[in-house]
Write a structure and sequence with these properties.
seven-stranded mixed sheet, Aldehyde Dehydrogenase, Chain A, domain 1, Aldehyde Dehydrogenase, Chain A, domain 2, 16 helices, 46% helix, 3 domains, disordered C terminus, 477 residues
Length: 477
């Protein structure tokens, strides 16, 4: 049996045994995952350094510690999230009880990606396990050291709860030929189309966490020095290889002229005058991406940075002043290039944003409530953040995901549990009295009138139902 098929078969067998459904099993797997990350923190940090040149502190902040915190949040709240939720029953169906409950989907495929190869494989894994599923993980072959670490440690800590299938496109293709109950994919739009086509063969639901250009708008009401520092951090952390990094900065020419030297100062403060010698500054993942970034930079106007070394895949933090038609304005950059793009004001900025695909996030640096309101009302994006890029990802109560071309579905915290669950409708109606007889034929004028009256009363029921629940609470407690 092929490795992919064998992994799926083992996961299916374990799920079908029913072992993954109890809360105790789910909490045990989450505890094991947290323990793996704690006990092998240095192993994963070394793998991330090898794959992406990530400093240990950055790995802890954005990968290892991020997932550890996500797991702890799930452990703390899972029991409450899984409680059945009572639903009002209309008079026409009473007496009866109705409720919804979250039930596991089955076997979940998580296809990770290379830019955050620990976080983007293990955070969705945690949500799928919390929801009572078994999981097959496909880590990215473009982060081979991290993939090897996952292959090494996941079986030791999670056993059959999570299978790891490593390899390149053939391994992914083999997995996509199998039947899953949910597929969670992080990556680019072209690969997402392949995933959706494969999922359609089995009518498998998908969550797609994609990219999308994330604009930042800055006006004169913002603290420009702090804005520059936050934009520089959001753009250049992980050498710019972050899906929620600010992809370009919009502002009036006067604002951009003032902001440009402040971003240079902030970048120098973080990574030194020569980031090539800074352990805090990462590297481009592979030669193909390095060459793509070089072409984008060479096809535009560099106003700061631009230094690079193909052998080490070092690419300096780079500011651009692009002209209309430059390729850097037409695609997600996913690297340490930051175009500064002039606009006349917020209206033109909004028009420019809406002319492209829907962003994964929009960042607004303005203290003007009118400007903030305009971006909220007139743009569509996976997230909208004021005053800070990327920080919303670390809030476990917020859903993380895109819209349109930037993604489909969301996760993190309770949103992960709901993504990887089916909310099942349940009804319990006693056999006596059989009020459903009102719906049985034969029909006539008298029954028509009674049914109409009941349905009319049901339309007014929510307000009265709330009153009844308020009155009933003290007795219930």
């Amino acid at each position: 049996m092929h490795t992919a098929a064998a992994a799926v078969a083992r996961s299916r067998e374990l799920f079908d045994s029913g072992v993954s459904r109890p809360l105790a099993w789910r909490l045990e797997q989450l505890g094991n995952l947290r323990r793996m990350l704690t006990e092998h923190r240095e192993d994963f940090a070394a793998a991330l350094l090898s794959d992406l040149g990530k400093h240990r502190s950055e790995s802890q902040l954005t990968e290892i510690g991020f997932v550890t915190a996500e797991v702890a949040h799930l452990e703390r709240h899972l029991e409450a999230w899984l409680r059945p939720r009572r639903v009002d029953v209309p008079l026409a169906v009473q007496p009866a009880r109705a409720w919804t409950e979250l039930t596991p989907l089955g076997v979940v495929l998580v296809i990770g990606t290379w830019n955050y190869p620990v976080q983007l494989a293990l955070a969705p894994l945690a949500g799928a396990l919390a929801a009572g599923n078994t999981v097959v993980i496909k880590p990215s072959e473009h982060a081979p050291a991290t993939s090897a670490a996952l292959v090494r440690w996941v079986p030791d800590y999670l056993g059959g709860a999570a299978e790891v299938v490593a390899g390149g496109i053939p391994a992914t293709t083999a997995l996509l030929a199998e039947r899953f109950d949910h597929i969670f994919f992080t990556g680019g739009q072209n690969a997402a189309r392949v995933v959706m086509r494969a999922a359609a063969e089995h009518l498998t639901p998908v969550t797609l966490e994609l990219g999308g250009r994330c604009p930042a708008y800055v006006d004169g009401t913002a603290d420009l020095a702090t804005t520059a520092s936050r934009i520089a951090w959001g753009r250049f952390v992980n050498a710019g290889q972050t899906c929620v990094a600010p992809d370009y900065v919009l502002g009036t020419p006067e604002i951009l002229d003032a902001l440009q030297p402040l971003i240079v100062d902030a970048t120098t403060s973080m990574f030194g005058k020569d980031p090539a010698g800074s352990a805090s500054y990462g590297r481009i993942v592979d030669d193909r991406h390095f060459e793509r970034l070089a072409e984008l930079a060479d096809g535009s106007t560099v106003v700061h940075g631009g230094q690079r070394d193909s052998e080490s895949r070092y690419f300096a933090p780079t500011l651009l002043r692009p002209a209309s038609g430059d390729a850097v304005l037409d695609e997600e950059i996913f690297g340490p290039l930051l175009p500064l793009v002039p606009v006349s004001g917020p209206d033109e900025a909004i028009r420019m944003i809406n002319a492209g695909g829907k962003p994964l996030a929009v960042y607004v640096f303005s203290a003007d409530d009118g400007v903030r309101g305009s971006f909220a009302a007139e743009t569509s994006s996976g997230a909208l953040a004021y005053g800070a890029p990327a920080a919303h990802v670390s809030v476990p109560g917020l859903p993380f995901g895109g819209v349109g071309g930037s993604g489909m579905g969301a996760y993190h915290g309770e949103h992960s549990v709901r993504t990887f669950s089916h909310e099942r409708a349940s009804l319990d109606k006693p056999m006596r009295p059989d009020t459903l007889r009102l719906a049985y034929p034969p029909y006539g004028t008298a029954k028509d009138g009674l049914v109409a009256a009941l349905l009319s009363f049901a339309g007014r029921a929510p307000g009265r139902s709330k009153a009844r629940r308020r009155k009933a609470r003290p007795e219930a407690s």
